[in-house]
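Many introductory courses stop at the sequence. We go one step further.
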Amino acid sequence: MREATRLNKRSGIWTIYTTAWKALWSQWKVILLIYSLNLLIAFIAMGPLSKVVTDRLAKTVYHNSLAEGFDYTLVMDILNNYGLGVDVTLTLLLSMAIPAFLWIVFCSGGITKICMLYPYKTSLSSFWAGGAEYFFRYLRLGLYVLAILGGILFLLLLLMADHLNALEMVSEGPAKSRFFLCVGLLLVAGFILNIFKELAKAKIAVHDKSLIAQPNSEAFLKTFTMRSIALGLCHFLVLGLVFGLYYLLRKLCCGYLIPLVLVGQLFLIYRIAHRFVKQASFCFLCASDREH
């Protein structure tokens, strides 16, 4: 990484962040490829659900009511009357979650390979080669992260339910306070895990060994450094600002279909770009910290 070698421990987080955006601009073919395949997966996954809504609900009062927003009573009524069709649809959607997860893992390997070669010119073959090279190591990493997140969620659910009895509560204040506390803790845990995951990807690529215990250990220690947390916050704040802009634009579209679709697709492209920049920036952060 010739560009990354110009970075060192004195390089600011913003410099690392902008360097990652420079890497993105030269890889528009990769972004277009990921975007196209994401649309294909979404189309395959949402097809069964769309068919159920069209075939079963188009001639009922539910079809128009669903467009007005979420209604718990309405959803429960649909489940009671069309439970079998919904069950089959949800099963199909869950079956698509596995290929989608594997595609995300493969993409991560391809992006890492491109980042490791930056700024040398690369092609789509580098993306495919990187996805295959790092796939099984990143798959193990992804499963570890999911297991940790699941364990944290389980503990928070226990905290939420501990000593709370709906029949004995005088008010819902304690339940609300505990709920918001759990949500806050989950967000913090997710933020820390996200930093660890991106650092671990970079460390695995640097060590280039089949075992990932050492890269994971190094990534865990580096997760709690100021530079890593600052870079994570930078990505979080920028994503929050873009999401706020996206929400505002959706409101301004006033329900018009074509503007809504365009805004949605632009936001999807940004999410792919954000993912690339985030992974590249943490790769560059690890590279800069190795420079003396």
